[in-house]
Write a structure and sequence with these properties.
- The protein has a single domain, classed as Nuclear Transport Factor 2, Chain: A (Roll), CATH 3.10.450.50.
- It is built from three helices and seven strands; from the N terminus they run H-H-E-E-H-E-E-E-E-E.
- The chain has helices at residues 3-22, 26-32, 48-56; strands at 33-41, 44-47, 58-73, 76-89, 92-93, 99-108, 111-119.
- Strands 1, 2, 3, 4, 5, 6 and 7 form a seven-stranded mixed β-sheet that branches.
- The protein starts with a helix and ends with a strand.
Length: 123
């Protein structure tokens, strides 16, 4: 896979994930997240079920994603980017200041699945 294709694939995976969350397409979001998924946020770590519960409580507005970096390690893509997102969780509006996100994707027989996510925007 060339570097250009690698970068596009990683960026597209993350954009599809955010788009599915913004569109509240929960079946698509759940299909993208591996059963062995783990995330870390400013308030702690979450597993697959806890992350889905958090995401279902998020109301995303306008968002901007930029400065993607993608690396490949065996069957994994590591994708980092900067996000500025209008998001409300449990009725509380979070900062729209740009923050970094890191996602790790595993290539499975059924396609790419998200296995890890780091969201450094304070929750």
């Amino acid at each position: 896979m060339s570097e250009i294709n690698l970068n596009l694939e990683g960026e597209n995976l993350y954009r599809q994930f955010i788009s599915a969350i913004a569109g509240q397409n929960w079946s698509a979001v759940e299909a993208m997240i591996s059963p062995s998924f783990q995330s870390v946020h400013s308030d702690g770590a979450r597993d697959h079920a806890a992350e889905l519960a958090l995401l279902k409580g998020v109301n995303l507005g306008t968002y901007t994603l930029h400065d993607f970096k993608v690396t490949k390690a065996n069957n994994h893509l590591v994708v980092t980017c900067w996000n500025s997102i209008e998001e409300t969780i449990d009725g509380e509006r979070l900062s729209t200041k740009s923050s970094t996100r890191l996602s790790v994707w595993d290539k499975t027989p059924n396609g790419w699945q998200l296995i890890a996510l780091a969201n450094l925007n304070p929750v």
